[in-house]
Amino acid sequence: MKAKIFQIVGALIIALFPLGLVLLGIASCDVKKGYVFQDKYEKLWIPNNLHVEMYENRLSRFAWIKDTRGKAILYYKNDYLTPHSHLFSDKESLSSDYRLVGELDTLDEHGKKKIMILAARNYSRDFKIVTTRYAEFHYYPDSVDEGICRKIIFSIKDVSVNKW
């Protein structure tokens, strides 16, 4: 009798295991699949369920990464200076690949806010010198998936043809 019960339970587990894997694959497909967003300076990996709205004028350039309902997930600014880049000046140890140079945890009217600043050295086509570019990201860790935000942030790559 016990052997028959174990056989039935074993058969059920074996039958349900592939179904569990399929359901797990469906639940995580939005996270694994994505596309590369590229502008004239950097590129980022973006999950399929998010999109980038880039804003640029002569004085500034920034982007909002939003979900399909239009909710802002991540704010992104890249330039030779960003609002918080002056707080972090470890330029000597930088390479042409972006690396984290600073993190700030702040509070504002929307709650806890995380600010991450990455920097890289590259050859500026505009100024014809080696310079530092900063990428500054803002998000609210209590209202977004922090893992996805960090994956997007650390996917940043320089697309400059003239590496130094």
Which short descriptors sum up this protein?
24% helix; alpha+beta; 164 residues; 9 strands; 3-stranded antiparallel sheet
Major beta sheet summary: 6 strands, antiparallel
Give the neighbour order of strands across the main sheet: 3-4-5-8-7-6
* Coarse shape: elongated
Task: Return Rg in Å.
Answer: 22 Å
Question: Can you describe what's shown?
Answer:
The protein has 164 residues and is of the alpha+beta class. It is 24% helix and 43% strand. It is built from two helices and nine strands. It has helices at 2-32, 146-153; strands at 34-38, 42-47, 50-56, 61-67, 72-79, 99-108, 111-124, 129-139, 157-158. The strands form two sheets. It has a six-stranded antiparallel beta sheet. Strands 1-2-9 form a three-stranded antiparallel beta sheet. It is elongated and about 80 Å long. The relative contact order is 0.15. Mean pLDDT is 80; it is low at 19-31.
Q: What topology emerges from the helices and strands here?
A:
Elements: H1 2-32, E1 34-38, E2 42-47, E3 50-56, E4 61-67, E5 72-79, E6 99-108, E7 111-124, E8 129-139, H2 146-153, E9 157-158
Antiparallel strand pairs: 1-2, 2-9, 3-4, 4-5, 5-8, 6-7, 7-8
Task: Give a brief rundown of this model.
This protein has two helices and nine strands. The longest helix is centred in the first third of the chain and has 31 residues, at 2-32. The chain has helices spanning 2-32, 146-153; strands at 34-38, 42-47, 50-56, 61-67, 72-79, 99-108, 111-124, 129-139, 157-158.
